Amino acid sequence: MPSLFRAAAVALLAACAFVPAVQANVLVGGTRVILPAKDGEVTLRLTNDNDTPALVQAWIDTGDAKSTPDNVDTPFLITPPMFRMEPRRDQNLRILYTREPLPADRESLFWLNVLEVPPKPADRGADGNNYLQLALRSRLKLFFRPEGLQGDAQKAPAELAFHATGNALVVNNPTAFHVTLTDLVVEVGGKTVSVEGGMVSPKSELRLAATGLAGAPAGAVVRFNAINDFGAPSPFVGAIAP
Question: Residue ranges of the Pili assembly chaperone C-terminal domain (predicted)?
Fold first, then answer.
């Protein structure tokens, strides 16, 4: 990538961090990406929902939100990595796995970045005033799913185990899949205790703050939504383990 564009992209990314309320015009077809190893690739649809063209750049990182296309190293290729999107048109992003080794007994998590750079206004500076131009970045989870994993991603939330430890809820995930929990509550003594959500990695534990959870007995009901492969919430019910 030309050094001048690289420097501009980095500066625009930094500006984006301070403008959370701006809405992107290039829409991504989904809230997450699942790449099955058996397929070796996945296609994602983008739509330019504006009346002006946009320059789009895409890359994948391992979790650093400050990443830029020139400093990432992941086993994936994106085609096209940079392109112009015409107004009211669609564009497919093709993500290919390069077959570099990844864990075979669990999913791996990466992040897909889609950076939108709008065109400069035709009348910029005509009245002598300064103007601000922003690049907008969408950032989606990308789950690489190896072949032959034990279990079912859609049923993985039902296998979570919950333990109350002081004012915290510890979630144990024995499965090979990532599970994202939202709307998490525990029923304690006739009251409902809200618990912050989060994502628990495969074969790992996640500790979630829950003020008022202290003293929750074994068997206390845990209700939550888990985000499925389509980005939609699915309801589940668990219980505090002894």
Answer: 171-233
DSSP letters, 52-96, are S-EEEEEEEESS-TT--GGG---SEEEESSEEEE-TT-EEEEEEE
pLDDT band at 118 (very low <50, low <70, confident <90, very high): confident
User: Tens digit of pLDDT for each residue in 90-108?
Assistant: 999 999 999 999 999 999 9
Is residue 238 within 8 Å of residue 184, measured between CB atoms?
no
Look up residue 115 and give its two tokens: 């950076």
Percentages helix, strand, coil for the chain (3-state, rounded to 5) are 10, 45, 45
Name the CATH superfamily, with its identifier, for domain 3-145.
Answer: Immunoglobulins (2.60.40.10)
In degrees rounded to 5, what are phi and psi of residue 105? Answer: -105, 5
Beta strands in 9-53 (DSSP E): 26-28, 32-36, 41-48
**Rounded distance, CA 222 to CA 232, Å?**
19
Joined together, the tokens standing for residue 215 give: 């003293």
The proportion of the chain whose per-residue pLDDT surpasses 70, expressed as a percent, equals: 86
CA angle 150, 236, 188 (to 5 degrees): 125
Residue 39: what pLDDT? 97
Class of domain 156-239: mainly beta
Tell me 119's DSSP state. P
Supply 84's token pair: 């112009």
Q: How far apart are CA 200 and CA 206, in angstroms?
A: 5
Domain with CATH 2.60.40.10 in the chain: 3-145, 156-239
Least confident residue range of 4-8, 88-92, 115-119: 4-8
